[in-house]
Amino acid sequence: MKLEIIIIFSYFLGSIPFGYLLTKIFLQKDIREIGSGNIGATNVLRTGNKYIGYATLLLDILKAIIPIIFVKFYYIDYLYIASLCVFLGHVFPIWLKFKGGKGVATYVGILCCLNIYLGIAFGIVWLISFFIFKYSSLSSLLGSLSIPLVNFFILKEEVIFFFIIMFVLIFYTHRENIKRLLNHSESKTKIY
Q1: What's the average model confidence in pLDDT over 93-101?
Q2: Distances from the Cα of 117 to the Cαs of 18, 46, 105, 145, 154, in angstroms?
Q3: Which residue in 36, 8, 24, 49 sits closest to 177, CA to CA?
Q4: Confidence (pTM)
Q5: Could you tell me the residue range of the domain that residue 156 belongs to?
Q6: Could you give the number of structural domains in the chain?
């Protein structure tokens, strides 16, 4: 019964669509009708309201941290299951007909809970990539790809399969971005 509760708890917290809620409450707009139609922080920034964009980013990170920290302290055997469920909740939220965000901010929250060094590594790779290329999507893909490599070669931890699965999922959520990157039609992102 514990496992079922953890799965449900993690999924439902992960599925809270902060980007949708914040733009609806403060801008009276539906984020799904703006820019890429995605509910994540990058698309919320396209509304022109940086505060709501950054608030979305922070809340999407926090909604991963809360259940994972709880599970880490009390049910550590289910840590990776809870992490996956939080991520899947964000990407496939029940509230929005299973059409959610791309999961990057939520993944950052997961990484910071599992191992803060992985969260830092992701952040460094993301920032370097972004300042070179100016594409949030490419930075997210490179950051996600770096995690299994950092985990295996630098931290030398054996739990690499989880991070490979997460990279594959993020690759999947960015499939349209990848097409646009290859076609040179991807929009550059302004974060300030």
Answers
A1: 94
A2: 26, 30, 16, 15, 10
A3: 36
A4: 0.94
A5: 2-182
A6: 1
